[in-house]
Every structure is written in structure tokens, then in C-alpha cells.
Amino acid sequence: MIRPLPLNDMPEKLLFWGGGDQARVLKPIVESLGSKVTAVIDDTKGLVSPFPDIDLFEGVDGFLAWASGRELGKYGFVIAIGNPYGHVRCKLHDYLENQGLRAVSFADHSANVDESAIIGSGVQIMRNVIVNVDAVVGRQCIVNTGAIVEHDDILEEGVEIGPGARLCGRVSVGRNTWICSGATVIPSVNIGANSIVAAGAVVIKGVESGVVVGGVPAAKIKDNVRSEGE
């Protein structure tokens, strides 16, 4: 069940978990909505902060050092990690909520999100996105630049929709699946969990869980061997 969360109800201070390209894309969006990124956490050893004026802390130990003595209820968090790591976003989401930080869901000013759409917690909606009537976007989903999530589409948690991808109405996408850049899914198709739809693919029939599909029309290429525990 999706727990709806108001879009763009932004706290003054934000923590980013993830210091790569996703963070660089997200920072100007959240700042335009009135929040300030105050720290970055990343699990990559030796990574340098992508922002010269913001400190980066390494992993859980670094987070705990940053958190010590702070009133964490005043901070929101954003998991700035793209797919195929939807399962990681959801795991970190639970951890940070348990620590007392608040998940935020946001959409760039240029996005068009219908007011009937149901938006879960921790959702990121980028520039020039359309989320149409009665769509459902689950927890820790990412809808990238220029993507279209049409009427009555359902995205389960951890899904990422790539730039320019199009879901053409009454499409369902299982948890942690990645619809890559420029892919098209025709209406009323079901796509399973933990799968990948390759860039530019055209999906005209259902996709099982745990596979990679590609081509026009899309067909199975291989199993998606990544497990949720990785």
C-alpha cells in the first residue's frame, strides 16, 4: 500500500545519501524548492564531495559522526542513488527514518503532476516530467527528465523511469525495476519486479520478474542476476 506524501513539503535542511551524479542533478532542484543540502553521505571509500562547500561523510559510521549532537527531526533526507539500486534506496530510507530524519518527495517546478496522482515517500520527479491522472508512484521511485507516467500507471517502490521513457497508461511496474532511457511501454502491460527494460525498447507484452529485455519489440535478453540483497 502506498502511503501518500505531499509533494514539495520541504524542510530547511537536507541530508543527501549518495555523492555521485544523481546528487549533482538533484541539488539545484531541491534548492529551487527552498531547501539547503547540509551534508552528503556516501559508502564509496575515498570519494570526494561533489560540492566544494558541503562535507562528505563515509558510510554509516560517517553518518553517525555527523548526526551526533544534532536534532535530526529538523532534517529531511534524499537518497541520491540511481538504479539498479532501488532496493538500496528503500533500505536506506528505512534506516534514516528510524534515525529520526524525514523523507521528502519533490518535483521540479517544470514537472506536471496531476493532483489526483498518489505519490509515495522519498519520490524524486525531475525536470519536464508528466505524471498523469490517477497514476501511483511508490516509495523511493525516481522519474527522470522528460519521462511520461500516464494515467492509471502504477509504479511499485524502488522503480526508476529513465529520461524520456514513456509508460502509456494502465501500466504496472514491479518493485526495483528500471525502465531505461527512451523506452516505451504500450498500455495495460505488466512488468515484473527486479527487471530492466533496456534503452529504446518497445514493450508490447508482459515482462516477467528478474529479467532484462530489449529491442523492438522487446524480448528477453538474459536473466537479471542481481539480487535484492546485494
Q: How would you sum up this structure in a few lines?
A:
By secondary structure, the protein is an alpha/beta fold.
Structure description:
By secondary structure, the protein is an alpha/beta fold. It is built from 3 helices and 24 strands. It has 2 domains: 13-104, Rossmann fold (3-Layer(aba) Sandwich), CATH 3.40.50.20; 107-218, UDP N-Acetylglucosamine Acyltransferase, domain 1. The protein has helices at 21-32, 59-67, 86-98; strands at 13-17, 36-42, 56-58, 75-79, 102-103, 106-107, 112-113, 118-119, 124-125, 130-131, 136-137, 142-143, 148-149, 154-155, 160-161, 166-167, 172-173, 178-179, 184-185, 190-191, 196-197, 202-203, 211-214, 219-223. Strand 4 (75-79), helix 3 (86-98) and strand 5 form a beta-alpha-beta unit. The relative contact order is 0.11. The mean pLDDT is 95.
Question: Which helices and strands, and how do they pair?
Answer:
Layout lengths: L12 E5 L3 H12 L3 E7 L13 E3 H9 L7 E5 L6 H13 L3 E2 L2 E2 L4 E2 L4 E2 L4 E2 L4 E2 L4 E2 L4 E2 L4 E2 L4 E2 L4 E2 L4 E2 L4 E2 L4 E2 L4 E2 L4 E2 L4 E2 L4 E2 L7 E4 L4 E5 L7
Parallel strand pairs: 1-2, 1-4, 2-3, 4-5, 6-9, 7-10, 8-11, 9-12, 10-13, 11-14, 12-15, 13-16, 14-17, 15-18, 16-19, 17-20, 18-21, 19-22, 21-23
Antiparallel strand pairs: 23-24
Largest sheet: 8 strands, mixed
CATH topology of the largest domain: UDP N-Acetylglucosamine Acyltransferase, domain 1
Let me know the average pLDDT: 95
The class by helix and strand makeup works out as: alpha/beta
Q: Which consecutive residue ranges, at least 5 long each, have pLDDT under 50? A: none
Shape: globular
Number of strands: 24
Lateral arrangement of strands in the main beta sheet: 6-9-12-15-18-21-23-24
What is the number of helical segments per DSSP (H or I, 4+ residues)? Answer: 3
CATH architectural category of the largest domain = 3 Solenoid
Distance between the termini: 25 Å
Helix content: 10-25%
Summed up, the domain count is 2
CATH class label of the largest domain: Mainly Beta
H-E order: EHEEHEHEEEEEEEEEEEEEEEEEEEE
